[in-house]
Amino acid sequence: MKSLLCIILLYSSFLFSQEDKEYLSKRDTLIEKGRQAYFDNNLPLLKTITKQVDLLYQKTNDSILLAKYFHFKALQSKLTYTNDSAFYYYHLSKDISKKINDSLAVGRRLLSLAILQKEAKDFLGSEVSLIEALQYLEPINSSVYLEIVYNNLGIVSEELRQQKEALSNYNKAIIHNKENKNNGGYLYIINNLGFFYQNQNQHKKAITYFNKGLSQDSVKEKFPIQYALLLENLAFSNYSLGRKENVLRQYEEVLLIREKLNDLSNLSMLHINISNYYKDLNKTKKAQHHSNEALKYAKQTHNNKKWLEALKNLSTLTTGEKSKQYLEEYITLNDSLFQNERRLKNQFAKIRYETDKKEKENVVLKTENQQKQAEILYHKQQKTIGWLAAAIGLLLFGFSVMFYFQRRKKLLYQAQLQQVQVREHERKQIAKSLHDEVAGDLRLLHRKLEKSNLLEEAQKLDAVKENVRNLSHQLSSVSFNKVSFKNQIINLVSDYFEPDFKIKLNGLQNYNWTTVDNSIKRLLYLSTRESIQNCKKYAKASKIIINFSVHKKYVHLDIIDDGIGFDTNISKKGIGLQNLQERIEELNGTLTINSEVGKGTQTDIQIPLNGWTNKNTFS
């Protein structure tokens, strides 16, 4: 009997293992088909496989399938050039992979996010995502993806004008490439290194890298895409050095390869180069032909950069109405792309903040639940002790007294906040009157003066009108009903952020701002805006650090800049700072400004949540 039972158990375990193997094989085959459909640009097939992945997940609750479902949704968005949706789905896929500790998948999704940010010219965001990817890929020593991450870090560092970091990242990519023995990846890195020096007009040094790549064994047959890229860049550098004898032949060879491979994206770049070659030789018709070809391929592949270059070339290669048409299309597209890039940056930032917020909320809820369970256990144990009843009575009395005083203090502060709200309403009404009535009347009067040829008076009146408009904007209130406080601060920082005027934001996402009164949030917003404007306009700063924090019963806003600074014993506060200090005093807050000439300025603002604080200081 025992031997028969052992045989039955062994047979059952064999059946289970066979079922597991069959399921894993089915799942992995389905996932591979989805990936291949994306690489083949087969959107209908990818959509079908995505539905199959979802159905299989509904049956099995396999989290890997759920992560892949969102991954494939992101790939669908990429094929339809809806990068904001792709960014959103990549984030969902990444978060699920985090929960199941799939470090490789997390690293790969972060890499995909970084590439989307790079394409949207959000280079700082891309750098952050790539560095985060390293945190997941380095512990598992995934050399294949570490090579790609460092290669992209090199590109992003170049865009951020971090030349040393760019070279360091490319060299790290080569180190990991040696572990992979991936010749195709090595050619991309070598090309990027050559392109790095090409961008700095060091064409002789760039040529050494392009030749190094082209000298690899059977590179044309084994890696035609990389071969074409290296040959095109070699031709460009030779042409830039005045070595023009083989340039056209090399460009034509690259053209044949790319047409054969149907490499539409890179064809637009090649036709731009050929067009510029003919333009320099004053062969206008041929230059026009290749610019038109570049425009065609750029539109097909949504290659915005080459699209703009082709339009710009055509505006200079044509004359009359046609030239004007190309130029107008160039200006319209350029403005549209700028707005779209800005929208994508904001959208990416919001998605990041929202997903991070949800993660933190889940952690907080889990911690609170554990604390509640501990408290329940504690109270059950304490019930057995008789003397606790008297202590509880005393505590209740103490809490009652405390509640009375706290309630009284809260009512006083609410009354004070209502007064502030009334004053804000008055400011808003005044601002509206200034903008709609006074500015409108001045505008009519200005036109009458112009018609009467009183130009000097009209010019002076126009200056008065602008002052009235500026005053109305300064007096206007800020609402957090439609756009949250956090997103308004993010938008404010995004509006002022520039490569030579960097703003770092800390602590904003660490607090639930919906619990803070709107008057306090309005003051924090206006304080941030006033400080940024002062740093940009007067302090000549290149970097600002903005720190939000909530400690005990106070909200803190600290703003540090690296500007020229000033002597606080001599300098007087301007109108903007005076208005800001008055607003802070209305909420019983404190304003402290510390500055030295040549050492920047630090502005500290502290606002009580309950209405009590010390006197303002200016030191």
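(ticket continues) Second input and output from the same batch:
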Amino acid sequence: MCGIVGYLGSKGAYEILIQGLKRLEYRGYDSAGVALLDCDGKLNVHKSQGKVSNLEKVAQAGNTNGSVGIAHTRWATHGEPNDINAHPHVSQSGMIALVHNGTIENYAVLKKVLMDHGYEFKSETDTEVLVQLIEYIKLTSSCSLLDAVRAALLQVEGAYAIAVIEQNDPDTMIVARKSSPLVIGVGDGETFIASDATPIIDYTDEVIYLNDNEIGIIRRNEPVQVISLESKEPSAINIQKLKLSVAQLEKGGYDTFMLKEIFEQPSTLRDCLRGRIVDNCSRVVLSGVELNKERFMKAERITLVACGTSWHAALIGKRLIQDFCQIPVEVEYASEFRYGNPVLNDKDIVISISQSGETADTLAAIQLARQKGAFVYGVCNVVGASIPRNTDSGTYIHVGPEIGVASTKAFTGQVTVLTLLALSIAQLRGTIRPEKLHEILSALERLPETITEALKVDPEVKKLSRIFAYAHNFLYLGRGYNYPTALEGALKLKEISYIHAEGYPAAEMKHGPIALIDHEMPSVIIAPSDSLYDKIISNVQQVKSRGGAVVAIVSHGNQAMNDIADFCIEIPEAPECLTPIVASIPLQLLAYYIAVNKGKNVDQPRNLAKSVTVE
């Protein structure tokens, strides 16, 4: 959600911070700001509603000197998006500046106490309450900035990643985290901090991932220190190497990150599959399953928890696991899971799915599942993120950084890993025939080439999209494995074009949605040549008989649908369980080009953030 960048070293901080904010624009935001301590020890704060480019104009009219600073892109939670509510926030004396990602749940109580002690507030944010509390503690206790930050955080309820600097101590920065990501980059005589590694990869590939309830102490020309919030005891420092390149964070000649990421899918799926299919496509190797065979052998139920696009992948995962493993599977929205009093025990497996690995609701679901004795398995993209560090085991999807807010390659990577996971469990439990396993693994190994073929519909979809840019509503229909594909296709269109779209199981259309269909309501119907093809044909006919336009996603060579649908987009043949991956390609392209035709910013759609790190 919000983005944080910080720098303490010998270089000018401003350019590093601004470039870092630009790298974090993909997270979604509505305002931005920067606080710098200049060589005279003065704290200069510049803030602006809107894009980082607006901030640059404001800042360049003022003082941008200094070798220590913090910066922020805000996605509004408390208070409307404007210059005043933008971060950094400054204490009443103007001596302390703070940036914050997260939500302080008891801010109203703390604010009242501070107001009773004469503090005045300029903004509507919970963050200003925290910086005022730090100053109040520091002044009344005559303690250091570190001790004041620690004492304040011990009074705070909620989630946070923070960075704090003080005018009287230009050689120090204090950072801390709880349920919100923060990474410290270790350079040569300089230190960087950020919400994720993307803003600092230009400067260092060595990072420290803060754990929950840890405080980082950054001092000029000294090694980084990390202590426990509760005990003040030093924490072990584990410096990790980033497996990330600057090239992965650039558009690479494409107009947008989203289009680049759609076309990257042959190579990202190759990375996702690498080393996991062995012995001439007769066996799957997932270390997370291999190391926990007993858990998977004894599992009596599996629950998948996720949000958004990851939830759609989970729905496909449910069918894969039930079909191949003969284990009962449930799918839960992570945001609802812990409020439903789930009944779990040590024979349950909970699989959490998240691209970023920082989704607040999914993290909360993991914590509850572990408390109840379940074995928790993570499916994640970002190495070193909170979810893989808080699960018992798991599998990375390895599709590289996804910058576009609307997920594309992460979705296909998640479904691919869930397929491998289902097959791995099935071969362990003996619930899949060797010839069936070989058939699907062979198709998986060919999947990068299959997706390359699927992407050839790009010119056709681009042309088709011009016809439907006028639409105000869309209906997406699918059956079996492709009901979740319909949900995902509808979500993509909603996210980036702002056209209302709904995904439905095709047979459910008769139970209400059919009333909406007319000549202004196009339907996208996913109809590969699978076991339910004949049934979905009748659904297409029902739409057509009511005047609705139909765009059908069909298997290559299917002529029958051409006589019924208005437009047919062909995809390569694939085993039924893999059709959601292949069919998602034209759906991603259709949403993309409709949004572009409407003049929308597809990489940064309004009101959306790449990862939701607060409830």
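Agent notes: The mean pLDDT is 91. The domain at 457-597 is CATH 3.40.50.10490 (Rossmann fold). Closing as not reproducible unless the customer responds.
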